[in-house]
């Protein structure tokens, strides 16, 4: 799960991570009110979307830049009016962009240096790791590619945590000295406390800045939380903004389905994560492209199957469906009943190939046969993949 920058800043405040003062607004009037309350000479207006690269982004109405600095309250109103309700396209949003529903108004920092600081989970060592660089404010992936020597890594002990000597080491690696080392060390320590306490899987601050007065401030923040820990993080769950998420995945999560949207044209509905992965592979092998990963689980109900089928059909890219069920715990007839109910409700207009095997398969096949749906049965997985790819090609 992700959150917005303005929400990240609230977490920073709670955990004593230094950042600039600011507030969020959903209308131009609110933006003006926030600016007046700040009472500063200048303001930075920042579009709030779940994606980075906003500064260099372009709105679909042609307006350039999702991060803007201005020196008057009148211009804050203008900027908020330009950004709110508009779709911002950045190198992280994809060409469809994301709609800006809120803007952050903050006191601008006067930047002397832009640094990069992140805490991530390092899967290789199974522990958190700090990634830092003197090259902040730019695309860190390109720094890693072209000047890997400028990326500094400090592994964190899984039980001892981030040690004071390490925070000073990171600060020095960032070229900080004197009082700045202490300020940075405090910021890193508090950031790590936040990382642990809120079950984060990633906190990325780009840029972390040194101001003209020598303060160290987090100016931007991208958070990622471990979805498996959300049950014990009600405060984080409350920050969820469903309008930022793939609507197919939001619908799937409401029915407890394991669904991940992809960009292919052949949807699949499978029981079991391993079988779902294999099904995606074999679709690809047969010359198609999977539109999703979907594991309905071992004990799916008819309602869940119906919901799954509707989610699949709501994807405009989907040109064919492959249902692959190997019923162990799963009753094949439950799947069949769910498919028939959903297909009748939504009106199935695209080819559907079904491979059913296992528990109660005869009843399942009978339900499908008697439904009147124009579906194609397959004898095994390879046969199913070949058939759906051929059907989709035929229809195109
Ligand atoms: P991103 O483009 O989505 O990563 O958004 P950022 O919050 O990182 O802002 C983009 C860039 O705008 C930063 O790298 C800074 O160069 C600049 N910027 C953001 N906030 C401030 C600020 O408070 N003061 C100044 N001077 N520049 C800022
Ligand atoms: Mn940034």
TrEMBL record:
<feature type="domain" description="ATP-grasp fold succinyl-CoA synthetase-type">
    <location>
        <begin position="2"/>
        <end position="210"/>
    </location>
</feature>
<keyword id="KW-0547">Nucleotide-binding</keyword>
<dbReference type="InterPro" id="IPR017866">
    <property type="entry name" value="Succ-CoA_synthase_bsu_CS"/>
</dbReference>
<feature type="binding site">
    <location>
        <position position="220"/>
    </location>
    <ligand>
        <name>Mg(2+)</name>
    </ligand>
</feature>
<comment type="subunit">
    <text>Heterotetramer of two alpha and two beta subunits.</text>
</comment>
<dbReference type="InterPro" id="IPR005809">
    <property type="entry name" value="Succ_CoA_ligase-like_bsu"/>
</dbReference>
<protein>
    <recommendedName>
        <fullName>Succinate--CoA ligase [ADP-forming] subunit beta</fullName>
        <ecNumber>6.2.1.5</ecNumber>
    </recommendedName>
</protein>
<feature type="binding site">
    <location>
        <begin position="53"/>
        <end position="55"/>
    </location>
    <ligand>
        <name>ATP</name>
    </ligand>
</feature>
<keyword id="KW-0067">ATP-binding</keyword>
<comment type="subunit">
    <text>Heterodimer of an alpha and a beta subunit. The beta subunit determines specificity for GTP.</text>
</comment>
<keyword id="KW-0436">Ligase</keyword>
<dbReference type="GO" id="GO:0005524">
    <property type="term" value="F:ATP binding"/>
</dbReference>
<dbReference type="Pfam" id="PF08442">
    <property type="entry name" value="ATP-grasp_2"/>
</dbReference>
<comment type="pathway">
    <text>Carbohydrate metabolism; tricarboxylic acid cycle; succinate from succinyl-CoA (ligase route): step 1/1.</text>
</comment>
<dbReference type="InterPro" id="IPR016102">
    <property type="entry name" value="Succinyl-CoA_synth-like"/>
</dbReference>
<dbReference type="GO" id="GO:0000287">
    <property type="term" value="F:magnesium ion binding"/>
</dbReference>
<dbReference type="GO" id="GO:0042709">
    <property type="term" value="C:succinate-CoA ligase complex"/>
</dbReference>
<keyword id="KW-0460">Magnesium</keyword>
<dbReference type="InterPro" id="IPR013650">
    <property type="entry name" value="ATP-grasp_succ-CoA_synth-type"/>
</dbReference>
<dbReference type="InterPro" id="IPR013815">
    <property type="entry name" value="ATP_grasp_subdomain_1"/>
</dbReference>
<keyword id="KW-0816">Tricarboxylic acid cycle</keyword>
<feature type="domain" description="ATP-citrate synthase/succinyl-CoA ligase C-terminal">
    <location>
        <begin position="269"/>
        <end position="389"/>
    </location>
</feature>
<dbReference type="GO" id="GO:0004775">
    <property type="term" value="F:succinate-CoA ligase (ADP-forming) activity"/>
</dbReference>
<comment type="function">
    <text>Succinyl-CoA synthetase functions in the citric acid cycle (TCA), coupling the hydrolysis of succinyl-CoA to the synthesis of either ATP or GTP and thus represents the only step of substrate-level phosphorylation in the TCA. The beta subunit provides nucleotide specificity of the enzyme and binds the substrate succinate, while the binding sites for coenzyme A and phosphate are found in the alpha subunit.</text>
</comment>
<feature type="binding site">
    <location>
        <position position="46"/>
    </location>
    <ligand>
        <name>ATP</name>
    </ligand>
</feature>
<dbReference type="Pfam" id="PF00549">
    <property type="entry name" value="Ligase_CoA"/>
</dbReference>
<feature type="binding site">
    <location>
        <position position="206"/>
    </location>
    <ligand>
        <name>Mg(2+)</name>
    </ligand>
</feature>
<feature type="binding site">
    <location>
        <begin position="328"/>
        <end position="330"/>
    </location>
    <ligand>
        <name>substrate</name>
    </ligand>
</feature>
<feature type="binding site">
    <location>
        <position position="109"/>
    </location>
    <ligand>
        <name>ATP</name>
    </ligand>
</feature>
<dbReference type="InterPro" id="IPR005811">
    <property type="entry name" value="SUCC_ACL_C"/>
</dbReference>
<dbReference type="GO" id="GO:0004776">
    <property type="term" value="F:succinate-CoA ligase (GDP-forming) activity"/>
</dbReference>
<dbReference type="GO" id="GO:0006104">
    <property type="term" value="P:succinyl-CoA metabolic process"/>
</dbReference>
<feature type="binding site">
    <location>
        <position position="271"/>
    </location>
    <ligand>
        <name>substrate</name>
    </ligand>
</feature>
<dbReference type="GO" id="GO:0006099">
    <property type="term" value="P:tricarboxylic acid cycle"/>
</dbReference>
<keyword id="KW-0479">Metal-binding</keyword>
<comment type="similarity">
    <text>Belongs to the succinate/malate CoA ligase beta subunit family.</text>
</comment>
<feature type="binding site">
    <location>
        <position position="114"/>
    </location>
    <ligand>
        <name>ATP</name>
    </ligand>
</feature>
């Amino acid at each position: 799960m992700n959150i917005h920058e303005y929400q990240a800043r609230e977490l920073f405040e709670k955990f004593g991570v230094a950042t600039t003062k600011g507030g969020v607004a959903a209308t131009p009037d609110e933006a003006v009110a926030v600016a007046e309350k700040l009472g500063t000479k200048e303001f930075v207006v920042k579009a709030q979307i779940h994606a980075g690269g906003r500064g260099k982004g372009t709105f679909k109405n042609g307006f350039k830049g999702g991060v803007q600095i201005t020196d008057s309250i009148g211009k804050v109103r203008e900027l908020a009016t330009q950004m709110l309700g508009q779709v911002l396209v950045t190198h992280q949003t994809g060409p469809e962009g994301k709609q800006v529903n809120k803007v952050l108004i903050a006191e601008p920092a006067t930047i002397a240096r832009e640094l990069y600081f992140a805490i991530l989970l390092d899967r290789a060592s199974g522990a958190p790791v700090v990634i830092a660089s003197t090259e902040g404010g730019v695309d860190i992936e390109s720094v890693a590619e072209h000047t890997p020597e400028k990326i500094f890594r400090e592994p964190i002990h899984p039980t001892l945590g981030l040690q004071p000597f390490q925070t000073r080491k990171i600060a020095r690696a960032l070229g900080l000295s004197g009082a700045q080392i202490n300020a940075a060390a405090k910021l890193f320590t508090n950031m790590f406390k936040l990382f642990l306490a809120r079950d984060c899987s990633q906190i990325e601050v780009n840029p972390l800045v040194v101001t003209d007065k020598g303060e160290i401030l987090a100016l931007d923040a991208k958070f990622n939380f471990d979805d498996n820990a959300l049950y014990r993080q009600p405060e984080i769950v409350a920050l969820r903004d469903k309008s930022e998420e793939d609507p197919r995945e939001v619908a799937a999560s409401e029915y407890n389905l394991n669904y991940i949207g992809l960009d292919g044209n052949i949807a699949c509905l499978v029981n079991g994560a391993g079988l779902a992965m294999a099904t995606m592979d074999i679709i690809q092998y047969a010359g198609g492209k999977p539109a999703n990963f979907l594991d309905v689980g071992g004990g799916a109900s008819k309602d869940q199957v119906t919901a799954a089928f509707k989610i699949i059909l709501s994807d405009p890219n989907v040109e064919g469906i492959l249902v692959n069920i190997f019923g162990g715990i799963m009753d094949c007839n439950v799947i069949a009943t769910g498919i028939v109910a959903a297909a009748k409700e939504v009106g199935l207009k695209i080819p559907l190939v079904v491979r059913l095997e296992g528990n109660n398969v005869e009843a399942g096949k009978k339900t499908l046969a008697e439904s009147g749906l124009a579906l194609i049965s397959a004898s095994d997985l390879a046969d199913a993949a070949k058939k759906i790819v051929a059907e989709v090609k035929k229809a195109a």
